[in-house]
Write a structure and sequence with these properties.
The protein is an all-alpha fold and 469 residues long. The chain has 32 helices and no strands. The chain is 69% helix and 0% strand. The chain is globular, with a radius of gyration of 26 Å. The mean pLDDT is 94.
Length: 469
C-alpha cells in the first residue's frame, strides 16, 4: 500500500475515489498515513476538484484526524497554487474553501485576489455561476474580489445571454450585492428583451429569476417584454410549466401583472397543475390569479369549476400537505390562503385534517422562520382557533422556542420578525409568556418587539373596525 503513496501527486489525482472505496477501513488508513495526506493536500494540482471530496471523506470517517490534517496544512503554499485557476474552476476553488474547515479565512487572506480578478474578467456567460459560487465562499471578503472585476466588461458579456443563461446572470447579480447596480446600468436590455420574448413556456422561470435579481431596475426589462406573445405561450402551459409561469407573473411590475392575469385561462391552469407538495406554491399562486381575475370580470363560474376540481382531489391534497417539510411550509401556506378565497369550507377541512400531522414532525431553523410565519398566518385567516391550536402544540411551540434560543438567526432577522408577528397575532398570551417568563433566553431587544406589537395591534384593530362598520 505504501508504494502507492508517491510524491508524484499527479499519479494520485483520483486518490479520493480510492479513499471512498476503503469504506470502514478509511479511518485507520488516514491515521497511518496522516503525514502523506498533509503533503498531498498542501501541494494541489491545477485541477482542484480532487481535494474537496477527499477532505469531506476524511472528515466523515475521522473528525480528529481531519482536524490534525487541517492544522498541519501549508496554507501559504496552497494559496500560491490555487490563486490562478481558470475561471471555469472557480467553483472548485469555492468547494476547497468550504472544505478546509476553520482555516478557510487564513486561506482566503493568502489568496492573490488580483490574479483571481484577472481570470474572472475573462469569463463567458456560462462561467457566471462559477464566479457566484466563489463569491459566496469568500463570505465577508467577497468585495475584495469584486473590486478586481471589470463590471462594464461583465455587462457586455451578459447582454448577449441566451434565454437558458438568464439564471447564470441572475446568480451573479445576487452575489454582487451592493455593486449590483453598477453592472445592471450597463446592460443592453433591448438584447435581453429580445431573448426573453423568444422564450418558450418552459423557459419562463429563467425570465422570472432575472427580473427578481434586477430588483428596483426590473422595469428596464419588463417594459420591453412582448406581453401579448408571452400570454399566448402561457395559455399553452403544460403541467410542468406552471411553476415558471407563476414565478414570472409574480416578478412583473404591478400594472403588467394585472394585465397578464386577466388574459390567462386560470381555470385551465389550476386544473392542469399536478397535486404534488413541491408545486403547492404554484397551485396557490394560480388560485390567487384565478380569483383576482374572476373578481375583476365578475365571473364566478370559473372559480366554482376549480373549487369542484379541488374538492374531488381533497384526499390527494391532504396526503401531500401531510408530507411537507419545513422548507415547503411557505408553499403550503400559499395554497391554503388562496384555497380559502376559492372555497373556505374546503380550506378549513384540509387544514383541520393535516395540521396535526405537520405538528408531529415539526422542526424549524432560521431559514424557515418566514415560511412558518406564513403558515401560521394562513391558518389564522382560515380560522383563528386553527392557528392557535397549531402553535400551542407542545412540539411546535417547543421547537420554535429552542430554535430562537439556540440557532444563529443573525442573517434571518426579517424572517424572525415575520414569525413573531404571526405568533403574536395568533396567540398573544402565549407569546407574552414566552418573553416574560424568560422561556426565550436570548436578547430580543434589537428586534424592537414593541414596534412589532404595535404593527399587529393596529392591523387587528383596523380589521375589527372594518367588520363592525
Amino acid at each position: 500500500m505504501k508504494e502507492l503513496l508517491t510524491s508524484d501527486y499527479r499519479k494520485c489525482a483520483y486518490f479520493w475515489v480510492f479513499h471512498r472505496d476503503l469504506g470502514e477501513h478509511a479511518a485507520e488508513f488516514d491515521r497511518e498515513n496522516k503525514d502523506w495526506l498533509v503533503e498531498f493536500i498542501s501541494n494541489p494540482l491545477p485541477e482542484l476538484k480532487y481535494y474537496p471530496p477527499l477532505l469531506r471523506g476524511i472528515k466523515n470517517v475521522a473528525k480528529d484526524i481531519y482536524n490534525e490534517i487541517i492544522r498541519n496544512l501549508d496554507i501559504a503554499r496552497i494559496a500560491k497554487e490555487v490563486s490562478n485557476p481558470e475561471v471555469g474552476q472557480f467553483d472548485q476553488l469555492a468547494q476547497l474553501l468550504n472544505a478546509i474547515g476553520d482555516r478557510r479565512d487564513e486561506l482566503i487572506k493568502n489568496l492573490d485576489l488580483k490574479r483571481l480578478g484577472t481570470q474572472a474578467n475573462k469569463a463567458k456567460i456560462e462561467h457566471f455561476v462559477q464566479i457566484a459560487s466563489l463569491l459566496i465562499a469568500l463570505g465577508d471578503n467577497r468585495n475584495k474580489l469584486i473590486e478586481q472585476m471589470d463590471l462594464e466588461t461583465f455587462a457586455k458579456t451578459a447582454s448577449d445571454a441566451k434565454i437558458e443563461q438568464f439564471n447564470n446572470l441572475a446568480q451573479l447579480l445576487r452575489e454582487l450585492e451592493e455593486r449590483r447596480d453598477e453592472l445592471v446600468k450597463e446592460l443592453n436590455f433591448e438584447k435581453l428583451a429580445k431573448a426573453a420574448n423568444a422564450a418558450e413556456i418552459n423557459e419562463f422561470e429563467q425570465i422570472a429569476k432575472l427580473l427578481k435579481e434586477l430588483g428596483q431596475r426590473k422595469s428596464l426589462l419588463s417594459m420591453q417584454l412582448d406581453h401579448d406573445t408571452l400570454v399566448q405561450k402561457a395559455n399553452q402551459a403544460g403541467p410542468h410549466d406552471i411553476m415558471g409561469l407563476t414565478m414570472l407573473i409574480a416578478e412583473l411590475e404591478e400594472e403588467d401583472r394585472s394585465k397578464f392575469i386577466q388574459k390567462v385561462n386560470w381555470d385551465s391552469i389550476c386544473i392542469k397543475c399536478p397535486i404534488h407538495v413541491p408545486l403547492l406554491r404554484a397551485l396557490g399562486a394560480s388560485l390567487e390569479n384565478l380569483w383576482k381575475q374572476a373578481k375583476n370580470l365578475s365571473n364566478k363560474a370559473s372559480v366554482e369549476k376549480v373549487a369542484q376540481h379541488l374538492r374531488a382531489h381533497a384526499d390527494e391534497i391532504k396526503q401531500e400537505i401531510a408530507k411537507a417539510n419545513p422548507k415547503q411550509y411557505s408553499g403550503v401556506a400559499k395554497f391554503l390562503w388562496n384555497c380559502n378565497q376559492v372555497d373556505p369550507g374546503l380550506a378549513k377541512e384540509i387544514a383541520t385534517e393535516t395540521m396535526g400531522k405537520l405538528a408531529e414532525t415539526f422542526r424549524i431553523s432560521p431559514t424557515e422562520y418566514q415560511g412558518t410565519g406564513q403558515l401560521i398566518n394562513a391558518l389564522y385567516a382560515i380560522d383563528p382557533d386553527l392557528s392557535a391550536s397549531f402553535v400551542k402544540n407542545n412540539r411546535v411551540r417547543g421547537r420554535i422556542q429552542q430554535s430562537i434560543n439556540e440557532h444563529d438567526w443573525s442573517k434571518e432577522v426579517e424572517g424572525l420578525k415575520h414569525l413573531i408577528r404571526a405568533l403574536y397575532r395568533s396567540v398573544p398570551e402565549l407569546w407574552e409568556k414566552m418573553v416574560s417568563y424568560k422561556w426565550l433566553t436570548v436578547d430580543l431587544d434589537p428586534l424592537d418587539l414593541d414596534s412589532i406589537y404595535r404593527d399587529v395591534d393596529e392591523k387587528r384593530n383596523a380589521s375589527t373596525a372594518y367588520k363592525t362598520a
